[in-house]
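Lay summary. Proteins are chains of building blocks that fold into shapes, and those shapes determine what they do. In this project we predict the shape from the chain. Here is one chain we studied, written as its sequence of building blocks.
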Amino acid sequence: MPAHLLSAGDIARLTMPLLGLRVAEAWRGHGAALCLELGRLARRAGAPHARGAGSLLMEWSWQVVGTRGVVAGSWAPDGRVTAALRGVVGRRVTGLTVSGPEAALTVTVDGNREVHAAGPAGMAPQWTLFLPDGTWLAVEDGRVVHDGERAARRSSGPVAISR
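And here is the predicted shape, written in a compact code that computers can read:
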């Protein structure tokens, strides 16, 4: 499935519907993965977790940051991660930005908390953001791309490359 490269403006426009949603659930998945469910949850038969209006999957190299610095990260023991996620659940998303040459993602929530998905120096992070319209954003080769099949139906051509 082809994917369209995005500019910073495209990313802001696509993620705008997530602003104001609450972090409804957060959990650590397999290995170092972290998932945040945003907005109203919908339960699906046989699924271990409900899905939100939007979802964020960070596969590795993420951290939760509070007013005093890093609270926990993908390297932290389960108890520390659980406590850090408790401090994020229930808070509203106030910002969502992609920055730097590695396409690091920062989700800011009220109460001065942030969740960062950033790869080690020089490496792109591995994250996917599922949007309320059923499409997704992800990092491919250090660039943010949009679900090509659905995006192509809504646009007359490819989205401009950023950088």
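What the prediction tells us: The CA atoms of residues 23 and 88 lie 7 Å apart.
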